[in-house]
Amino acid sequence: MNFSRCMRWLIALVAILCVVGVFGWYKFFREVPQPPFANEGERFKYGSIGAENTRGIPYWIWVVLPRVFPDFVPGPGGYKAFGVVWEPGQEIPVGFSKKTIGFPRIANNCAICHVGTWRASESDLPHVVVGAPAHTSNLQSMIRFLTNCAADPRFNADTLLAQIERETKLSVVDRLIYRFALIPLTRSALQKQATQMAWMNRPGWPDWGKGRDDPMNLTKYFMTSQPVDNTTGQADFPSVWNLKIRNGDGLFLNWSCDTPAVISVLIDSALGLGAAPDPTVPLDTLNWKFKRRAWFVNRMQELDAYLSDLAPPAYPFPIDAALAAKGKVIYAGETNGPAGKCVSCHDPGQAHTNRLIPIADIGTDRNRMDTWNQAAADQANEKVKEIGIIRPNMVKQEGYQSPPLDGLWMRAPYLHNGSVPTLSDLLAPVKDRPTAFHRGYDVYDPAKVGFITTGDAAARDGWMEDTSVRGNGNQGHTYGTELSDADKIALLEYLKTL
Amino acid sequence: MPAEPQPPTPPRRCCRWVCWFAGIVIAVLVVWAAARFTSDKPVTYAGNEDHFKYGSTGGERSSGIPYSIWMALPELFPQYLPGKGLQSLGFLYEPGKDLPIGVSKRRVQGIDRVFLNCAVCHVGSVRDTPASAPRFIVGMPSNTVDLQGFERFLSAVALDKDFTGDRIAPVIKRMGTDDWLNRELIRYVGVDLMRDQLVSLRQMFSFMDREPVFGPGRFDTFNPPKVLLNFRMDMLPPEEWVGVCNFPSIWHQRLREGMELHWDGNNISVDERNRSAAFGTGALPPTLDRASVRRTANWLLDAAPPPYPYPIDAALASKGKPVYAEYCARCHGASGTDFAGDLVGKVTPIDLIKTDRHRLDSYSFALCVNQGELYAAYPAERFQHFRKTDGYANQPLDGIWLRSPYLHNGSVPNLWELLEPASKRTATFFRGYDVYDQKNVGFVANVSHENEKAFFPLDTTLPGNGNYGHEGKAFGTELSEDSKQALIEYLKTF
Question: Which of A2-11, A314-323, B66-75 comes out lowest in average pLDDT?
């Protein structure tokens, strides 16, 4: 009698726990695959790289934050005000992915830094180029926006839910979940992120501005346990098309040749965005966490394949073919001697292309290079290995990489820190290069080959880069600066064809 | 046998009865209260036209004004109205109706609430002569309603020290529009809630202070959605400030599906355009009454304008037909019912049309992309078709005689003047008068007063009010006087 009553209670308890468990799984962990994408380009722009687990912001919170905190948004325009690429008709900007894991979440993907736009004139619409540097996006100001929101007393369930319920009718259960779990948890996660990012908010510290982040310090402080140091390494987002010519024995990627293989860059960048293959599970354990890691590695390989063959964008304005032909001779350096020989450092397969140019030779701003060190590289390698992912190891080098120049026209501003606005300025002696200009405005200047950086519109949409700020130095890479004006114009015309 | 002692049950039985009774009373009260305070029931209409004029879009759920307060306000605050009642703001009242055309009623939480619907901007009034009775015509642009004046009336009321429950409740009692319970709810809760809403509305709409006064028949279409998205209006670039434009006609939507809709042609989906406009009636994605709006949308698919009611010189009109075919048809359609033409419903670049560009510029790319978030909770309804354009869309001319004043900003009083170069168009004319001008084809525009009612002087020199553009040889302003007369006669047949 007693035993059976006991059993009955036990069964009831187990049943309740099962129901609670299934309910909890459904509401918080159930993974719904994203709807299929029309092509790999769309998937690159909006597809998940697996960051929704750890960095996913609950969808409705993400939607209403700019509406609840317009005073923290840098201008009228919701998330667009941060300069992100946003295609008309799309629910979310490029570089954001929406995925349901229990509840719909928003996270970022590679495209937040690697899709860019250009316009022919102020009245033109943005032309979106996949793989181009996101030169209009101000990631730092978006991070600071989230920090400010989380620190503000208005980040509470009453205020957020009032705004959310102008857009959707939440069920009673979902409202309770938002009120008691998602809103407070999101707030504390954002507050935690704010403390992790405190290093970039030190008083007087250089801003990233539009089109840049501090990649190796981000890696250092998030992937390794290296202490916060005095380095700053704000650097341009690079283009990521045509990666096949960047992969190979002895070739390096990242501005300071910090990484020897495309797959390593992809994996480390995705981990930096919060992609979360679980580190605590050994490789041979077949469970859902392992599946997620397998999914992650597979996704990275797919991206590798896609980006390896992604064609650079063709120059969209007229090119003077005869002039370009003259420029090609100068580019090849046959008439100018070694100083003007672009080809040996910038053509795929050449002796110096995708390889290190020592800092003493290149002479560009050394701050970015100094952010990385061997101890950080070792720790990062160890960390990735612990996660159970095999990839070529990062290294520490003293100098800057000499990249191939495919799609060069769309990679302005130039040098690793974007300190030189146009190619025409890059061919000018250092003393003649602009020392302050507005970057992040996407109307193109075919005469100087780069984006327009002066005038009211550029001032309104752009961010002013001051080359006297630490890390923004526009010195170095003086190759070709002594060419005649006629030769420079011819060379510029040829560079448009790349 | 000794008598059995009486069991002590009677008091208990009594107690039980009391309990039962109290329980039933409480249950009835709970059911009654639940029924009353969860009610959500619009006033419905059998006829489609009445549904259009008075049916609900669901806007009362989130933005509704208690019916009793609506009725009391003009009486309590006449000082904020230009004349007697809301009629003085151009609202159109049909005989026997206590609410004007364009105002719907719904009982929400036990209280009748009212708010605007589509018809407030899309029903107009026509009189043949000053002595004639007005005819209200559905689907034409409202030519009389001063929506901005109405917003400013509510804003003024909200800040008035007399806008209190104690002042309003006795008026409601006298009008008999609500029972005791609602009256007390309005007295102690409703008025305060409404004041909060109106004060925030006033603040939200302060962007209008940077624009010229709209007057009747016009509003700013695309600055309000920026407010809806809580954009920083104080940081808006000056070129976006002025978005004032005329209300459009809304007939023949079936033929317009796929055309570039709105004045600047920023959306090709009739349904999205409808939902976007429904925000203006207070309907948010969760509160939109889909069935009701669908009924209106379906009815508008084939709704048609009334034919021109005055004499048409058939011989003259037939002379105008080839002129129309040569100059107008490619952009404006083969006729008033056949919208064929390779540029019909397409945007003409601003550099060609050269009309006032303020309305175009007020719609920004940043707003365009943000609209992609709207209705995201209802994936089939999410806005996907908004685009930023660089001009104004060519409109079909169905019922063109009723669409005066002309151009997107209503800056040209009649068709005759539209065929004149801008230098000969009237620089300041009056809007809001509904007597028809058969000679020039449009509403009479040179009458400043009728009895105590003053009409609105539109100053075309103000930003956004420019009456230039749509001129030059290609636009017919260099035609001979005879050809113009013939063309206008032909346009009367649309």
Answer: A2-11
| Nearest Cα residue in chain B from A85 | B369
In B, which residues are within 8 Å of A71 by CB distance? Answer: 232
Residues of A in contact with B384 (CB under 8 A): 89-90
In sequence order, the 6+-apart residues with CB closer than 8 A to the CB of B223 are B207, B208, B233, B236, B240, B241, B243, B362
Least confident of A272-276, B333-337, B489-493: A272-276
Is residue A395 within 8 Å of residue A260, measured between CB atoms? yes
The rounded distance, in Å, linking the Cα atoms of B398 and B306 is: 10
Q: What ranges do the domains of chain B cover?
A: 40-491
**Interface residue A93 vs chain B (CB under 8 A):** yes
Closest-CA residue of B relative to A166 is B284
Task: State the smallest CA–CA distance between residue A58 and chain B in angstroms.
Answer: 13
Give the residue from A210, A212, A135 showing the smallest Cα distance to A450: A135
Predicted local distance difference test score (pLDDT) of residue B9: 55
Structure tokens at A203: 């008083």
| Residues on chain A touching B62 (C-beta within 8 angstroms) | 166
CA distance B448 to B425: 18
Contact A268, A394 (CB under 8 A): yes
Distance CA B427, CA B459 (A): 6
The answer to whether the CB atoms of B226 and A165 lie below 8 A apart is: no
Q: What backbone torsions phi and psi does residue A175 show, to the nearest 5 degrees?
A: -65, -40
Which residues of chain B approach chain A closer than 8 Å at the C-beta? 62, 226, 229-233, 235-237, 284-286, 364-370, 372-374, 376-377, 382-388, 390
Hey, are the CB atoms on A76 and B284 less than 8 Å from each other? no
Q: Which of B233, B372, B377 sits opposite A76 (nearest CB)?
A: B233
pTM: 0.93
Average pLDDT over residues B218-236: 96
Nearest chain A residue to B390 by CA: give it.
A123
Whole-angstrom Cα distance, residue B182 to residue B190? 9
* pLDDT above 90 (res A388): no
Residue with tokens 């206008």: B488
pLDDT exceeds cutoff 70 at B323: yes
Q: What tokens does B455 get?
A: 């009409």
In SS3 terms, chain B reads as CCCCCCCCHHHHHHHHHHHHHHHHHHHHHHHHHHHHHCCEEECCCCCHHHHHHHCCCCHHHHHCEEHHHHHHHHHHCHHHCCCCCHHHHCCCCCCCCCCCCCEEEEEECCEEEEEECCHHHHEEEEECCCCCCCEEEECCCCCCCCHHHHHHHHHHHHHCCCCCHHHHHHHHHHHCCCCHHHHHHHHHHHHHHHHHHHHHHHHHHHHHHHCCCCCCCEEECCCHHHHHCCCCHHHCCHHHCCCEEECCCCCCHHHHCCCCECCCCCECCHHHHHHHHHHCCCCCCCCCCHHHHHHHHHHHHHCCCCCCCCCCCHHHHHHHHHHHHHHCHHHHCCCCCCCCCCCCCCEEEHHHHCCCCHHHHHCCHHHHHHHHHCCCCCHHHCCCCCCCCCEEECCCCCCHHHCCCECCCCCECEHHHHCCCHHHCCCEEEECCCEEECCCCEECCCCCEECCEECEEEECCCCCCCCCCCCCHHHCCCCCHHHHHHHHHHHCCC
**Identity at B404, one-letter amino acid code:** S
Amino acid identity of residue A103, one-letter, is F
Assign A298 a pLDDT band (cuts: 50, 70, 90): confident
By Cβ distance, the residue of B285, B387, B388 closest to A167 is: B285
Domain residue ranges of chain A, discontinuous segments joined by + = 1-31
